[in-house]
Specification:
acyltransferase; 1-acylglycerol-3-phosphate O-acyltransferase activity; alpha/beta; two-stranded antiparallel ribbon; ten-stranded mixed beta sheet; Rossmann fold
């Protein structure tokens, strides 16, 4: 069961959310503002689409996992956007990373929708999806929050086979989902994926030494206290939008490693990012349970590499701060096809920095769905294998 959000009905399906009443009045956002900002951002996309609030219930039947627990027993919703596609096109489901939401893929929807049925998802507790109280107390519970809620969304959407793409933290969730439900995933694409390194890695020694300093001790305490960037944005109230504007202008403008945003894109993305960050804290509180300070996974994907059952393509920007060498190490243990593609003139947000090369990488990763004799297909010019 889902609720379609129509052009003349912006945000109306979200007005039943009780949590919006308790957001501090001086924070200039609301649940309606998130949907409206998303629609403004997607105005640059030429492909038709449908926004949906997909009802995932109040928890998996018989489950004791905490992802659905809250003061309210109202149903939870996963927000997703489905783009018009050609008949019989393979389905590509896209999952965003930490401190992001599905609109971050706005530069990619038109091109990808030419070959795929594209569905972009806001994970539970992010974007325009429901934001239940986050009550998880362990890594296992936190993983279940995202994996089980996504599985309920899949059931509600009646999807059986799809290509799953996840970025950064979304790559971690996508990989964990594919490990638990491989029968539904035709191919896995992990873009700048987090979660392969652990504190036992040699490269963590520098973080260990830093943590021993007073600055490191303070930052580690903030991390373990679940102090998130979003809390800073909320705490600044009416000054929050300006902080977000400075970030987007710097990251995707003056300090961009690739194709900078146009003025219109920058304005629309800033507006969208602010509203998604300033909304009620929920999924963002997962961080300390999934990663230790320094972004080292508490349950690294590397430990599960030998259990991989889905063919996988890793995509990294040349300037990505996520290390592709973790994927190289995982590949040594995988028993399924695996390739690692690096994209030039791109950092962690490779799909924004160099969208053209990113699209080429995705199409190459999925070549067997389009080309009969795909084994002889060569890697597109400019991309390199790692």
């Amino acid at each position: 069961m889902s609720e379609t959000i129509r052009e003349n009905d912006v945000g109306s399906t979200l007005k039943t959310s009780r949590s919006s009443r308790f957001w501090p009045r001086w924070i200039p956002t609301s649940v309606d503002d998130i949907i409206a900002a998303e629609k403004r951002l997607l105005s640059v996309v030429k492909t038709g689409y449908v926004q949906e609030h997909v009802n995932i219930g109040s928890g998996p039947p018989g489950s004791k996992v905490r992802w659905f627990r809250s003061a309210s027993s109202e149903p939870r919703f996963i927000h997703s956007v489905t783009f018009d596609s050609k008949p019989d096109a393979p389905t590509l489901v896209m999952i965003h990373g930490y401190a992001a939401s599905q609109g971050f893929f706005f530069r990619n929807f038109d091109v990808l929708a030419y070959r795929f049925r594209v569905i972009a998802v806001d994970q539970l507790g992010w974007g325009a999806s429901s934001r239940p109280d986050f009550t998880c107390k362990s890594t296992e519970e936190t993983e279940a929050w995202f994996i089980d809620s996504f599985e309920e969304w899949r059931k509600a959407k009646n999807l059986s086979n799809f290509i799953l793409l996840g970025h950064s933290f979304g790559g971690y969730v996508a990989a964990k989902y594919a490990l638990k439900h491989p029968e539904h995933v035709q191919h896995l694409i992990l873009v700048g994926s987090a979660g392969f390194s652990s504190e036992s890695d040699a490269k963590s020694e520098r973080i260990t030494r830093f943590r021993a300093t007073w600055k490191g001790a303070v930052l580690n305490h903030l991390w373990e206290s679940n102090f998130t960037p979003q809390k800073l944005v909320r705490g600044l109230g009416p000054w929050g939008p300006n902080i977000v504007r400075k970030y987007t202008s710097a990251r995707f403008g003056t300090h961009s490693t690739g194709e900078i945003l146009t003025e219109e894109e920058s304005t629309l993305l800033t507006d969208y990012v602010y509203h998604t960050l300033a909304a009620k804290a929920s999924g963002e509180l997962c961080l300390k349970y999934i990663f230790s300070f320094g972004a080292f996974a508490r349950m690294p994907l590397l430990l599960s590499a030998s259990e991989w059952k889905v063919s996988t393509t890793f995509i990294y920007g040349f300037e990505d701060w996520m290390n592709y060498q973790g994927a190289q190490e995982a590949r040594k243990h995988m028993k399924v096809p695996c390739e690692i593609i690096r994209v030039p003139r791109a950092g962690h947000f490779v799909f924004i920095d160099n969208p053209t090369a990113f699209h080429s990488a995705v199409f190459y990763a999925c070549r067997r769905f389009f080309i009969p004799d795909s084994d002889n297909e060569s890697l597109p010019k400019g991309l390199t294998f790692a």
